[in-house]
Amino acid sequence: MKTMKFQPGTYLEMDDLAGGRKVVCVGRDGSTYWDMLDADRITPIVIHPSQNPKGLGSIADFLQASGLQDTAQGVIDHLRDQGLDPEGNALFVMRVLWEMARNSDESMSGDALYGQAVRAAQAQEAAALRIHARAAQYSVQQ
Predict the structure, then answer these.
(1) Which superkingdom is the protein from (predicted)?
(2) Cα gap 68→126, rounded to integer Å
């Protein structure tokens, strides 16, 4: 199987195998990714060229490349106001920022824009949970 290598701890955008794209975190070995930061519930997955991975870099790199430096604090504040823990889940924060960069609606701003991005990031997280739950069911049945 052909694998790819990326800088450990950085983020990738890749195909989600359901017709969309998702954000994941590169594992310590540089050739696997985590789609959730919960080692008790998931296993890292090999990065494969068929997933069309695109390096996003670190959060700081992404903020600079996407021009979102001025909105980062607003995102953090919004997450805290919603009872979410931005310090405890950097992958979730990156997904919110990625959604904002990708789907920003110029007619939307502030809490409405943040809320839309948070809901999309939560959908990515929920999809990852479903996939890992199905994989766990399959492995138990075998």
Answers:
(1) Bacteria
(2) 25
